[in-house]
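Hey, quick one: can you model this chain's 3D structure?
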Amino acid sequence: MLEIITSNIINLATTILILFIIVDPLGNIPIFMSLTEKMSKDKKRKTFNTAIITGIIILLVFAFVGQEIFSIFGISISSFEVAGGILLLIIAIRLLITGKIIDIGESPESIGAVPIAMPLLVGPGAITTVIFNLQQYGIAITSLAIIITLFITWIILRSANKVYRFLGQSGSLVIARVNALFIAAIAIQYIIVGITQFIPY
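Sure thing. Here's the predicted structure for all 201 residues.
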């Protein structure tokens, strides 16, 4: 009995670690800051809450019925990567040209769902990971890992305001432009990885 419990704890910790690395909330903090730069503190909180809730729902849905969803629509993970890459590339272009990703008056819930929840937090990599985790570790461990990982991510997002205050308005503006280039690079990487899966060797 003790061996089973120990094994489950190790599997859970492994699953959380892998998913956390894929979601990469720490590495994406500058991007989140850029996307929410002009929001009030209350709107930022709503945005991040929406992002985490949306992310949990999306990952749980794909964990349970992800393969069936892809089969129904006749698409592959590779196609999903290309689509996510194109969406991120559009986001990067808007950030570079206009300095913002949302129009004035757009709700925090909207930007929290797209692009923060998806595809920045919950991209093709995260979706693929939870599908594989379900097959390897089962429903209970996979679901718990999703919830714990996104809860840790929520805590990290809530701490982003401290970084905001440290950088100030000018620093945030510079980072917004610089990170637009990183978003574009991530987008191109998604597209390249997705397309290469269709190229016969």
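One thing worth noting: The two ends are 48 Å apart (CA to CA).
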